[in-house]
Amino acid sequence: MSTIAWRILRFSKPSTFFGGFWPRSSPRSNGWPGGWSGGEHAVASPDRQQVADHRERDLTSHVVVVGGGIGGVAVASELRRRVGGEHRITLVDKGGTHVFQPDFLWVMMGWRRPERIQRDLRRLSRRGIEVVTAEVRGLDTAAHRIDTSAGPLAYDRLVLAPGAELAPSALEGFPSGARNLYTLEGAQRLREDLSTFQQGKVVVLISATPFKCPAAPYEAAFLLDYHFRRKGFRSSVSVDIVTPEPQPMPVAGPEVGKALVGMLEERNIGYHPLRKPSRIDPASCEIVLATDERVPYDLLVGVPPHRAPGFVRDAGLTDGSGWIPVDPRTLRSSADHVFAIGDVAAIKLANGMFLPKAGVFAHRQAVAVAQALAADLTSRSDGGTFDGIGHCWVETGFGKAAFGSGDFYATPAPRVQLRAPRRTLRWGKVLFERYWLRKWF
């Protein structure tokens, strides 16, 4: 570890650097209550017999978590730590693999190999978390049951953390005309593109709002600029951002937006707000805007439209926003004993905007829900609540990153500050990746 990294770990206040979630104890240790280590309840095989075996068990309560992303992994693991082995915890995930999505940008740049940012969710079985690799096809909140490709699964408490579903086909021409910045495959294809791209126009397109990780498209633009400068042909390549947003990261407030626009201008990155795309024309390599204006491109880096997963919509849990409305503090939905955390949840803020969809919020919400569930299941009164505190890095290339943090539940509007890019802040992003993948897996 470098001297800079060691100094960050040694001298930085955890609450300042990681939003108050620097690990107090590591689940990799044997610190589970009662020496819990999984035992007979560790499940790995993704077949129908697996679900049938679950139904035969008669433990006190059964908590089902849907989704193996940041929120799902954190809530299942934290709840197991708090309740020991007295209750069943089952995590259901379609792919069976946890992918650290913030690293997609580093895959694009060639700084990470795909296998390095993925973990098998079956590793959670060592902690006594039953893992079912199956697709959720239906949800009956009245019957307390989810229907999966491996069979039905009953629950006493349900935590929905399936994330946002990417819908590239919702924008005509996106699948064939753009590289998807928000998939591992898309990041890999961009890496291949960058190995040969030496001149022309690169456009980073935000298709629609809301979208997860609001900083990611801006980070992509900064890193693309850095890549072309480092290769020595930035003068023959233009980099532009086209977005329907009025400013970068609008929920963070006008000052943060103004600061980011200034950073883009310093790097000669074109910024085009309030541009809503209606379709992409792959044949002519043009984005067609709602105003009929056409934006040409040679390489299109796209953020696709997002929506709630189909089973959530079909269950009637979403509202006019298209997402699941929840209590801002407890993350409870309108359905009995059903929580929703992370990207699938809709939380309206004091200024009328919605809480951004970001991993830091999914993580903090997961811990709050785990605390609340543990208190409920053990008849304690020390349940947790979500406080709206969040942060994010904005990587700018040249080994630096900016860092935004603040209180998104503040009134009359979120209070967010953006620290200027520094090398030490970028090291914080590197260290957080290492902390995350080692803590849970």
Write up this protein.
- With 441 residues, this protein is an alpha/beta fold.
- It has 2 domains: 27-164 and 308-390, FAD/NAD(P)-binding domain (3-Layer(bba) Sandwich); 166-306, FAD/NAD(P)-binding domain.
- The protein is 29% helix and 25% strand.
- The protein has 12 helices and 25 strands.
- The strands form 8 sheets. A 5-stranded parallel sheet has the order 5-2-1-9-21, covered by helices on one side. A 5-stranded parallel sheet has the order 11-18-12-13-14. Strands 6-7-8 form a 3-stranded antiparallel sheet.
- β1 (62-66), α4 (70-83) and β2 (88-93) form a beta-alpha-beta unit.
- The longest helix has 19 residues, at 359-377.
- Mean pLDDT is 90; it is low at 1-47 and 49-58.
Characteristic key phrases:
FAD/NAD(P)-binding domain, 441 residues, 25% strand, five-stranded parallel beta sheet, 12 helices, single chain, globular, disordered N terminus, 2 domains, alpha/beta, 25 strands
